[in-house]
Structure prediction request, 879 residues.
Amino acid sequence: MLSTRPRLRATLLRILQAFPVVVGVVVISFVLTRALPGDPAVYFAGASADQESIEQVRVAMGLDKPILQQFVIYIGDLLQGDLGQSLSTGRPVAVDLANRLPASLELTLTALLLAIVIAVPLGVLAATRPGSWVDHLCRVVVTAGVSLPTFFTGILLIYILYYLLGVAPSPLGRLDFIYLSPEHITGFYLIDAALVGDWETWWGAAKQLMLPAVTMALFTLAPIARMTRAAMLSALSADFIRTAKAAGLSNRKVLYSYAFRNALLPVVTTLGMVFSFALGANVLVEKVFAWPGIGSYAVEALVVSDYAAVQGFVLTMALLFVALNLCIDLLYTAIDPRIGFLSQ
Amino acid sequence: MTDTSSRRDFLKMGMAGASVLPFLKSLPASASGGDTIVVVTGQTINSLDLHRSGTSRASYQVGVNCYDRLLSFGTKEAIGGGFSYDYTVIEPELAESWTESEDGLTLTFKLKPNAKFWDGRKVTAEDVKWSFDRAVSVGGFPSVQMKAGGLVRPDQFVAVDEETFVIKLDRASKLTIPDLAVPVPYIMNSVEAKANATEEDPWALEYLHQNPAGSGAYKVARWEQGEQLVYERNEDWVGGPLPAIKRVIIREVPSPATRRALIERGDVQMAFGIPDKDAAELADKIDVFSTPVENCIHCLCPNFAFEPFQDPDVRKAIAYAVPYEDIFQAAAYGRGLPLYGGEKDINDIAWPRKTHYYTDLDKAKEHMAKSGYADGFDVTMSISLDLASWMEPTALLVQEALGKIGINVTIEKIPGANWRTAVLVEKRLDLHLENFGGWLNTPDYYFFWAYKDGHLFNSSNYRNEEIEELVDSSLHMPMDDPEYAPKIKRMFEIALEDLPRIPLYQPALNVAANGAEGYEFWFHRQLDVRPLKSV
Prediction:
């Protein structure tokens, strides 16, 4: 059956190929967290703990066992789908991640969507009118986007829109305190609120999302606009465009059906990259806007050497990236039929 | 402007006007004006149970706001505005009265007969015993803190009858009674806890971590970790006067800049633990309370394990070279209390106290010349990245000053996670900054932790036989004992002569309020929401 459905076969093959990657990530994250010089037992024993109570904590955390034994225990738990218990939050890591990953994803995806809506048309326009004011605008936006750190843009936006003008809602996280968070279905507040038809909360969540999403979008639209412009320029100067023009095809047809479609490949690649680093770079935006996302979770876990939480985070990110790469590969074949999985 | 102003109106009106908001659907309030206060803080509450290992300092507030202890501290006016707990006044909380036996070894507590847990069950001596047993048995920080008051084993606690609880001590100590009023020995609903305990977890640490079961002034209405904690008033509280505020919302906002924008605009009523810089700048716009933290000193510590620091003249040279005023202004923005330029004669037992050192480079150079290191030496000064806000400017100023007397300082920054291990456990940092503060406010208690050989906060590896003896003999001695004051004064003399810790300044805890009053400082440096009122 698989031989008759090449795409399914290729997808399964891809997933199989991801296995060594995930195993490698598990091993590396385990070793690296242990290699951190901090001593979690000392940290978690608290401010005035003596040697004895530090030892008690160490035993309770299982850190007195040899490292190999700790690894075997960890793998055993992992195979049962147990990511372990976070010491700092005192909850299963899986629960923490399930709570926090949607917050980050909601923010990142909204920001990315916003960035695409602005950056792709901007890039196309800039490429079709090189040297014009659109091109210059594109250059300015791109330069500003990459050169302004996100926490700075964030604070600046808060200062102007919230503090001075008072048009933005208070930067208090995902929802202002007068709202109750919607029932947990997907963890995305916008989706959850819409599903239960609670538009009041939906609007509340959307308002809170705006400033951080704009901050992130400013940061992420730079590479997308840049890549769109470059890809469009090279596509427009290709022979087949000249042929198409010579054949008398309409400008519109040439631009969108031939040039843009060919330019899409590098843009999609960039999108994948931007998405991955945006999810990581989130942490600064999360701090400024009190966003309870996965980035600040990971940083806090790292600061206190909370092994299980750090490992769980790294593993989740790895799985996310594997899935993302798979999606992008599949997108490639949809965009450009010449890239087949058959050849592999 | 509409969003924010409508929200502020909503707060002013109380809950009555905005009946369509979802908050009200699920938390209906028969409220009049100003019964909600929103507090922002940069710290994370990671557990509702202080006894769990790994519970963050911010979580200690739950122990005070949601649970009762047998005793509590009184209130006094604080330096720097607002109020403070009063270490010298002990007030009953769950206990109605208590007596001490002649020899001071038996403490008998009568519980308030009308005290009830949130589930309506009467608070009994059995609950007190179970809670105390738990605190001394779970290990880690709670057990250490109980030990400071001489509370070590479960057999010391006896529930005589429903309302009578007895503590038997191995030796009488002035620290026992105050230690019963710190956040640790709080009373839990033992029936509810036991119903949720398991064989591996006999103390219900898992359950109480997320489900508090107390009798305190506030219940936890909602807790979303990493986001917010919502306190709701317990209308049946008997531990003290009923709080004025019905609901207090603690929101976690990590960025200080965001917190500042929120408090300045008045969208939140209180910002807890703001940086010294913000406190200094906000002081003339809104209410800012900068309470000097009792029994806490920011110190420069020369480590005796590093050879040049074994030379007393080198340590004195440093003490005269340190630019105290510059540090106080640059690191603390003048918040807190300076600790230099005092009298040399020690006439009282106040601690922290002004030392007789002050910035005098000539004197410093004299001492350097007299020492065995007249040509100077190189040393590494370590600071924690987590505490960089005060440590970094301090370190730079110390580096510059010591350079003038021939001590070449290199600054090393240590990540927060490694700091405690390096400075307190391994005690391997040659020159470093340290900020110990003792919960129990007596000088001997400070010295016990910070000057006794091998003790956790003695990061300088200091040992002095006389100090060892003085601390041991004064630690449990009543403060009105005629021998007490002379011993303490002698301790100060030796410590300020030997200088294993060079006091820089007493730090402050800064809290900004815009629409709330009644703030009270507590030694555990967390917010007591019970006395808060709306303005």
Q: What stands out?
A: Chain A has 13 helices and no strands.
